[in-house]
Design brief:
Layout: E1 6-8, E2 21-22, E3 27-28, E4 57-61, E5 69-70, E6 81-82, E7 104-109, E8 112-117, E9 158-160, E10 169-171, E11 177-179, E12 185-187, E13 216-221, E14 224-230, E15 234-235, E16 247-248, E17 267-271, E18 274-278, E19 284-291, E20 294-300, E21 325-330, E22 333-338, E23 342-343, E24 355-356, E25 379-380, E26 383-388, H1 391-394
Parallel strand pairs: 3-26
Antiparallel strand pairs: 1-4, 2-3, 4-26, 5-6, 7-8, 9-10, 11-12, 13-14, 15-16, 17-18, 19-20, 21-22, 23-24, 25-26
Length: 399
């Protein structure tokens, strides 16, 4: 009986060593231990075109599941379950990984359930390797500071190095910073609230007899209070003490610093890190808030930004009305799209993305791409499964 087949020249194939290999025409089953053919000269028995017909390998449709894939009792299609990565069928059908918790996430990796810590600061590391007690080590654990096995010296705390909110966690504080309790590691050189020591706040007025200047206060410089400093949004650009810090650093002409003029088409906006000229050509500034009368926000592409689609503040929904459907911003309009591995093949909005293109042999990898249904050819990962077969079974040689 003749069977349908696929012929692939050896110079575009790789040997298959008992594992699944994805080619341009299908997923390959079985084992091929023959060495790959190289380019040969015309006088070495090759056919016209430089390819030896004997080096061609015949591939036929297969109903067998590739390694790592199987058909479970609740499968919708043949070979649609990946037991190497499916947390509901990990290693075997029905072998479900434990439920996730507030601190632990269980995933299927290479057919085995493994535990990953979610990163919650209370318990973020599994340092003892015991799954039963989960992620037992916290972010500031002095016996596992920043990483498992890093032990802090006696009396030394496990601290965030760049303040209480962000930064690396390590034992003690780096040079130039002090451990200021709940504040963590603090740079005390020029900190107006911790000048030279923790909680040593400077008198911003400089005292009852100190002269006052416009947009100027008395703060900390080189661990000493009483030093003249400009307010955060101003600078002394003319160098004249009498008129104080006369220049706003949140203007298009002096953005963040004296004389820093924003290029044409950009504007000076407020960011937590300071003033910045925004936005580059092709992007639009969308204001998300205001601080001290100054706008802050982000540069966005109104053509593709899901939170600013077509105009600032126009948000596309994260999900569609049906499973496997999502909203995206396409040239400034919110539209529905199918998630990877699914498709809307009937064109009806009533049932959304109704086709599983990863496993459906009638729509394998795309609408209307049909595997050999007569032979029960399976669809795996969007490819029709094939396996090496005898030339007599393959029928007439085609190209």
């Amino acid at each position: 009986m003749l069977r349908r087949f696929i012929k692939i020249a050896a110079f575009v194939c790789i040997p298959i060593a008992g594992t699944m290999a994805c080619g341009s025409r299908g997923i390959v089953m079985g084992e091929d231990t023959s060495p790959p053919a190289g380019f040969v000269t015309p006088d070495s028995g090759t056919s016209e075109g430089g390819v030896d017909p004997a080096a061609l390998i015949a591939y036929c449709p297969s109903s067998q599941c590739p390694p790592g894939w199987t058909t479970c009792p609740d499968s919708r299609f043949p070979c649609d379950t990946n037991v190497l990565g499916d947390s509901r069928n990990c290693g075997a059908c029905g072998n479900a990984c434990p439920e996730n918790t507030a601190y632990e996430e269980f995933v299927c990796s290479d057919g085995a359930c493994t535990m990953e810590c979610t990163g919650a600061s209370i318990r973020e590391k599994d340092c003892d390797g015991i799954v039963e007690n989960g992620c037992e080590s916290g972010e500031f654990d002095p016996n596992n500071c920043g990483a498992c096995g890093v032990v802090c010296a006696e009396g030394e705390r496990c601290l965030r190095q760049d303040g209480p909110v962000e930064g690396e966690v390590a034992c003690g504080c780096p040079p130039g910073k002090l451990d200021c309790g709940r504040l963590g590691c603090v740079e005390v050189e020029d900190d107006d609230s911790n000048c030279g020591a923790c909680n040593n706040a400077c008198d911003r007025t400089g005292g009852p007899d100190a002269p006052q200047y416009s947009n100027v206060y008395y703060g900390c410089i080189d661990r000493e209070c009483g030093k003249l400093k400009c307010h955060a949004t101003f600078a002394d650009c003319d160098g004249t003490l009498e008129n104080g810090c006369e220049t706003s650093t949140y203007t298009d002409d002096d953005c963040g610093a004296c004389g820093n003029k924003c290029p044409a088409g950009q504007r000076c906006v407020y960011l937590p890190s300071g003033a910045k000229c925004m936005c580059p050509e092709g992007l639009t500034f969308c204001q998300t808030g205001e601080q001290g009368g100054l706008p802050f926000g982000d540069c966005v592409d109104l053509r593709s930004d899901r939170r600013n689609c077509g105009d600032c503040g126009v948000v596309c929904g994260r999900f569609g009305f049906f499973p496997k459907e999502k909203q995206v911003c396409d040239f400034g309009k919110c539209v529905f799209r199918c998630m990877e591995g699914s498709a809307d093949c009937n064109g009806a909005q009533a049932d959304g993305c109704e086709i599983d293109t990863n496993s459906d042999p009638r729509n394998c990898g795309g609408c209307g791409v049909t595997c050999d249904l007569t032979l029960g050819q399976a669809c795996v990962a969007g490819k029709c499964v094939v396996e090496p077969c005898e030339r007599a079974d393959a029928g007439e040689v085609t190209r």
